Amino acid sequence: MRSIGKVDPLMTLARPDIFHPRIVLAGCPALPSGDGDDDGLIAALRGRGLHARWLPWDDPATERADLVILRAAWDYIDRLEDFLAWTRRVPHLLNAPEVVAWNVDKRYLADLAEAGVPTVPSMFFAPGEHVRIPSGEVVVKPSVGAGSVGALRFSDRELARAHAEGLQAAGRTALVQPYDRRVGDGETALVFLGGEQSHAFTKGPMLPPPGGAPVFDESGTYAEERLRPADPDFELWDVGHAALAAAAGPLGIGVAELLYARVDIIGDAQDPRVLELELVEPSLGWRQLGDQERLRQQRTFARGVESALERLGLGPFAQRGP
Q: Where are the beta strands (DSSP E) in the chain?
């Protein structure tokens, strides 16, 4: 029987002639077991006969796992090249390395817009490019970012330009978007599992008015959020499905191969706009569900892992060869 580090005592009860894939849920050094929202996933996987453990993504043991599932690798923005190189070394990663490489940079929003998906207008300025700031209130943030790190609101164009140029000076591409006041009503986060809609929740505004900065949790990896359950209109779900299809096609994968996805939308059914499509390590808002619904949807997540293992030729429980 193969293992990663300390053997799970439950694994010692397994038949030695059956292959049990080694599964890792990947956090980061600041949050090696995530932020608590995913706490039910280990039990859900065990309910399918699958055994997983948490590790920081940069722990060398992750590269000896059969399957790694990205969940809370929220420090990748400061170690992007190392992180992307690691995604290519891991034998099997969900979501897949090519998905991660495309999705870590918010320039994917231009791809979605080109495919006809309604998105928040976005302008990107690589280092050395002249920054143009439109009139009115804007949001400036790095194109590679997570948890609102480096994101600020501005009503002063020169201050906005200075922030963008500061990002460029640090070797980062600046993303400039008009501030949409509908954000004050919250973003609708649509969660998909295996390409199918699962549940939704509302995220309260994270960016304070111009002159302020977001409040981060004690790990410093993400801005604190105010969440509550949501029941979106079908028009919003349609936009979410369109965003997933627009991403999967050029990547050469089926939508069902996305173990998880989250589409953040502002606005209502009259004019919904995609603010972000999260395919790398989004919070899935499990704690916004009632107990029974949470268990049911986490079982769906576990079945998705099982399907991925089958697709990758890893079982589960494939008979060992002679």
A: 23-27, 52-56, 67-70, 93-94, 123-125, 138-142, 152-154, 174-178, 187-193, 196-203, 227-229, 260-266, 273-278
Examine the domain organization and report whether 96 and 126 are in the same domain. Answer: no
- Single-letter code of the amino acid located at 300: T
- Which residue bears the tokens 């589960």? 316
What 3-state class would DSSP assign to 175?
Answer: strand
Total domains present in the chain: 2
> In terms of residue numbers, what domain contains 89?
23-104+306-312
Query: Cα–Cα distance between 308 and 59 in angstroms, integer?
Result: 23
Cis peptide upstream of residue 121 (ω within 30 degrees of 0) = no
pTM equals 0.88
Is 292 in contact with 243 (CB distance < 8 Å)? no
Residue 67 in domain: yes
Q: Please, are residues 26 and 72 in contact by the beta-carbon 8 Å criterion? A: yes
What are the phi and psi torsion angles at 104 (to 5°)? -70, -20
Q: How many CB atoms lie within 10 A of CB 178?
A: 15
Query: Which residue, 179, 199, 224, sits at the end of a domain?
Result: 179
Question: How far is it, in rounded angstroms, from Cα 169 to Cα 90?
Answer: 32
174-178: strand order across its sheet: 123-125, 174-178, 138-142, 152-154
318 falls within a domain:
no
- Neighbouring-strand partners of residue 188: 202, 265
CA distance 162 to 233: 39
Q: Does 205 fall in a domain?
A: no
Could you give the CA distance from residue 46 to residue 302 in angstroms, rounded to a whole number? Answer: 9
Q: What is the CATH number of the domain that holds 168?
A: 3.30.1490
How many Cα atoms within 13 Å fall on the side-chain side of residue 157? 6
**pLDDT tens readout for residues 141-168:** 999 987 667 789 999 999 999 999 999 9
- Would you say residue 187 lies in a domain? no
pLDDT tens, 106-134? 999 999 999 999 999 999 999 999 999 99
Residues 97 and 134 in one domain: no
